[in-house]
């Protein structure tokens, strides 16, 4: 189980990303638009830099929904390999068959 503080920190980052997503997209569009004057694009870049760092989606880290584990994460299932194995062994995942040899 991951530390509660790390799980909460990730939730806080996720909230910031969602809060600033529209503003970031708007500023990035202005900054990359070649038809706009150079000063306007530069100002957009400065405003983008003023936004909180944790509002950037690249700072998010995928974590298991059950345990909070950051490594060995399956995107489709949103759980880690260990949680997947436990759920499969207990017969709680439909379509997953236990095997042993």
Written description of the protein model:
Strands 1-2 form a two-stranded antiparallel ribbon. The chain has helices spanning 4-32, 38-50, 81-89, and strands at 73-74, 79-80. The model has no long low-confidence stretch (mean pLDDT 92). α1 packs antiparallel against α2 (38-50). The chain has two domains: 1-61, Helix Hairpins (Orthogonal Bundle), CATH 1.10.287; 62-95, 30s Ribosomal Protein S14, Chain N (Irregular), CATH 4.10.830.10. The protein is built from three helices and two strands. It is elongated and about 70 Å long. It has 101 residues and is mostly helical.
Summarize the structure.
It contains 3 helices and 2 strands; from the N terminus they run ααββα.
Q: Which features characterize this protein?
A:
single chain; 101 residues; Helix Hairpins; 30s Ribosomal Protein S14, Chain N; 3 helices; 50% helix
